[in-house]
Amino acid sequence: MKLSIIIVNYNVRYFLEQALLSVQKASTKLATEVFVVDNNSVDDSVRMVAEKFPDVQLIANKDNPGFSKANNQAIRLAKGEYILLLNPDTLVEEDTFDKCVAFMDSHPKAGALGVKMIDGSGNFLPESKRGLPTPMTAFYKTFGFSKFFPKSPVFNRYHLGFLDKDETHEVDVLAGAFMLLRKSVLDEIGLLDETFFMYGEDIDLSYRVTKAGYQNYYFADTTIIHYKGESTKKGSLNYVKVFYNAMIIFAKKHFQGEKASLFVGILQFAIYFRAFLTLLNNFLKKSYLPLLDMLLIFGGMYWLKDFWATSYFDDPNYYRPSFLYFNVPLYIVGWLGSVYFNGGYDESGNIKKVAKGLIFGSILLAAIYGFLPLEYRTSRMLLLLGSVWAIVSTFLLRTGIHFIKHKNLKVGQQPVRNLIIVGEKQEAERALELLDKANITQNFIGIVAPESVRDKAYLSHLTNLKEVVNIYRVNEIIFCSKDISAQSIMHWMTQLGNKMDYKIVPKETMSIIGSNSKNTPGELYTVDIRYKITDAVQRRSKRLVDIVIALILWILYPIVFLFIEQQFSFLKNIFRVLVGQKTWVGYAKTNTAVNDLPKLRTGVLTPLAGFHSDQLDIPTIQRLNFFYARDYDWTKDIELIWKGFKQLGN
């Protein structure tokens, strides 16, 4: 056996399927074996591998033991002369394995090898080649010096930016996304260190290879796509914590004395520094639009107060100071809170949702107005004028932002992208059917043939792809991997640049895969079931219903507890729902897991409320859970709470 390929998977089924298809194509000239180690995925990955890839040796873990331990499970069974650690969110060229193995065969001192990696937009991934993270290297990376001086051998030693990405080099550290290792070297230095749960294990292994007297090579003669962001989310605090803690483990393991202390100190500070930047970045991304709305509305209300006081009452000081520090903040909370719960901040350009939220918020504020103390009932007219200003200002703000970004005034209209498909007519038509079933709207321009053909069904052939893109102003390209080689796909991705969206439809799959950024999750066009309960607006509506019902029941507790079967548990449930430990309605339990459904908090009630659950069989209960998740609406919770009112103390 020449090559053992090991893929550790966690909840990236469609990317795994594409990776395995590319591995099949790349393995035709070599004696290979393929292992998939699944770390307790809940997305049907295991069944997909078992059904579609029967030759793959599948290890299905019942928990998630981590990346290192999962790889070691397969390495211990592997029989190949070479071991390849490969990420599931990758796509390899047809001759990648042949070239890599040939290079290793001709370089007996090569202990490990990595390749050129690009992301889903064709951008080179700098982590393809890395230097050893010494204290100063880590310092320059953590505090951004490497970004300001990308070609510097001093400031960007972490990504070796001074080395040509198109040439093969001896390097210190390889990426675990594609790491080819000589089995005899692994036998000598030991397997992956299982202290590293995720991240850092590739640095540790690379370092041990060089300490044993072997070389690590960055091999530039082949390229793979690595859809960054699928197995991990780099914009999270958890990523920051896990990544830098892995670096601390590495430092304590391999460095001694003052060097280790300095390194650990820098990394510990980096955890807090990067966590702060992550929090700040996430906050600004989510809150810049509400903050701008807030400032505009407040400024408008300040002017309206003076205008109405002068023009109607002929007294610029007519309104008390409390209007600005009590009434206006109350109005803003009512308006913007309603916009939030209506989904107006999920899509910044969706004017309809914003207007709907502001109108609903105005109605709510008008109802609250009558309950305010007399000194705070300033003016119904100001509330009305403020509502009009809130709608006008939010519209103008979004119009301005949209114009700056898109140079047009079509606010709230999702631009229809110009799409071409590269492949044979039959496979292209299948891709179009998938788009239609997935409810994806695109302006389909036509099909580009893989080869030169004289057929009016095609716009042109592949060699003229750049001209087709320019003439028709194409925004998105879908490649049919059945008809186009991975090598050709990657060539065109790098040639056309990152202003285009690229996607691939793998052979005989029900998905179209792509990714526009190395730091964002890959995109999927699938015909899978869409659960309404996963919609952000519906999730917020569910939480709002939980809180409102809990508050009402708390206020009315002296009365309603008489109708509840377990009064003490009922009070506990009210508080658990308020603090987010429970929800009023969750899934019904069966003797089988509901992991294939979107996650919910434990429910006080279930979709079985109103039924005699002891008379329902397990398939019926599962179907009720399924329909609840698929067709969720907040009114469903109200209905179920009413039906199961007596059981609210469960």
Write up this protein.
The chain is α/β, with parallel strands linked by helices and 650 residues long. The chain folds into four domains: 3-129 and 165-231, Spore Coat Polysaccharide Biosynthesis Protein SpsA, Chain A, CATH 3.90.550; 233-248 and 255-414, no CATH class; 418-526, Rossmann fold (3-Layer(aba) Sandwich), CATH 3.40.50; 532-647, no CATH class. Helix content is 46%, strand content 15%. It has helices at residues 13-26, 45-52, 67-75, 96-106, 135-142, 145-148, 183-189, 201-211, 237-254, 257-311, 322-341, 351-369, 380-406, 425-437, 465-472, 486-496, 536-555, 557-560, 567-578, 618-630, 634-643, and strands spanning 3-9, 32-39, 57-61, 82-86, 90-92, 110-118, 169-171, 178-182, 215-226, 418-422, 443-449, 458-461, 476-480, 501-505, 511-514, 523-526, 582-585, 602-605. A hairpin with an 8-residue loop joins strand 15 and strand 16. Helix 1 (13-26) packs parallel to helix 2, helix 10 (257-311) packs across helix 13 (380-406) and helix 12 (351-369) runs antiparallel to helix 13. The radius of gyration is 29 Å and the shape is globular. Mean pLDDT is 84; it is low at 229-233 and 517-522.
